[in-house]
Amino acid sequence: MELFSVKDKTVLITGASRGIGRAMAEGFASAGAIVYGTGSRPESIAWTEGTSIKGVAADLRSETEMKDLINEIGKEHGRLDCLINNGATTLDVPASAIKETDLENLVDTNFKGVFRSCQAYYKMQRKKGGNIINIASIAGLNGAFLMSVYAGTKAAIIQMGNSLAVEWASSGFRINAICPGFTETDMTATIRKNDEYANKIKEIIPMRRIGKPDEMLGAAIFLASDASTYVTGSTIVVDGGLARH
Predict the structure, then answer these.
(1) How far is CA 35 from the centre of its chain?
(2) Total-model pTM
């Protein structure tokens, strides 16, 4: 259906080097979108070579790199149809062991980097409207063992998005969030390698399995398309029912 089409829409996805971000970049490209995907280093986004996806190295902790990229896309295409803030980092250690440098890295990447990207996008396109999808986490809703700061940053971007949805609605901006549950990504690799713990995770997921990165794509396509023109300030949970267990 045309209602759910993202064909020819210009989409920027951060953290597209692997996992959910890569699955989204490949999925949007397959659906006919003009896709830009970022990675923190050139080698991390090198997989886009030979594809229609434009891979760009951009550090979310930088005060200027994402701003410059967003403005460049705006100049080249006339507008950026959708910004998907997926880039993030995590640290699975006890809260008592988190160092100041760890704290700064998590907050700078997961929260400040997302806010800066949203702000740069709004400033560039406030007269044309826009669409922002923030990839949060079920950890931002329920908390998570050994992920106190990560969970805090994800909760923060959910509430930041809710606030921006109200503040920027009059400028034609929609801001929504997707909260993936336990998913097969590098972030969960250590846990999944422990069969005993992985099985315990599956036992508390009503669907009894771990999600796959491409299973987050449908929610993103919906929010990026004209099927969701009256949806803003919402959070879509894609977790196999875990949040309701």
Answers:
(1) 14
(2) 0.95
